[in-house]
Each structure stands twice: as C-alpha cells, then as structure tokens.
C-alpha cells in the first residue's frame, strides 16, 4: 500500500507558483507531482492540492488525460503514463532552476506587484 500524500506537499510559498516555467495549466505540474509515487484516487489528490475545487481538479485531470500524460483505470485510479513520467526529469530541472533563482524571482515579483499598485 502506498503512503498517503503529504498534506504539506506544496508549500504556500512554493517555487512552483513563482517560476515562470509552467507545465500545462496552473495545476498540471502539481497533479503530476502527486502521481509521481504511483496511482491515486481523486480524493487523495485533493489533500495536498488544498486550493483546488473538485471542478478544477476534474478539468485538470481530463486535460492531462487528453494530452496522454495521465490515465484513469477502471478502479478510478489516476496514474502517470510513460509519456507523463517522462516529464518528471524536466520538471526536476525547472524546480532546481527556480530554487537557484529564488531570490531573483521574489525580487522581480515584488517589483512587478509594486509597479501594478502604483
């Protein structure tokens, strides 16, 4: 049996929100990360994805299925396909890049927010 997903898998100030590199929509990369350790049920995915609605998660999963990255089994488990699993390496590289440039990204975000408010 798989260990449950960590409810704190995604920190509120996670680089995934900060990095300009996106894999699909806002949630796709995080869904892929949740499935990295093996198949999961819809309800399991909602634990670490605290800000997502059921409708939005359904939309994200369907888009990932349509793109061939995720498959849904008869047992209603979602799993990465080999194509989806092939994204894990590039995602690791993007996360490493975001960690390396964390301070620059934060400074740019703050400067951009200040400019919009002015």
From TrEMBL:
Give the Pfam families listed for this entry: HxlR
Q: Which UniProt keywords apply?
A: DNA-binding, Transcription, Transcription regulation
Residues of the HTH hxlR-type domain? 14-106
Q: Which GO terms describe its molecular function?
A: DNA binding
Q: Does the keyword Cytoplasm apply?
A: no
Supply the name of the protein: Putative HxlR-family transcriptional regulator
């Amino acid at each position: 049996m798989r260990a449950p997903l960590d409810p704190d898998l995604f920190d509120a100030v996670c680089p995934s929100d900060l990095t300009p590199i996106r894999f699909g929509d806002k949630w796709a990369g995080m869904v892929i990360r949740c499935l990295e350790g093996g198949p999961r049920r819809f309800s399991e995915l909602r634990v670490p994805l605290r800000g997502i609605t059921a409708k939005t998660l359904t939309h994200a999963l369907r888009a990932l299925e349509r793109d061939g990255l995720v498959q849904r089994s008869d047992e209603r488990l979602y799993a990465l396909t080999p194509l989806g699993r092939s994204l894990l390496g590039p995602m690791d590289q993007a996360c490493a890049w975001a960690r390396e440039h964390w301070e620059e990204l934060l400074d740019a975000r703050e400067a951009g927010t200040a400019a919009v408010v002015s």
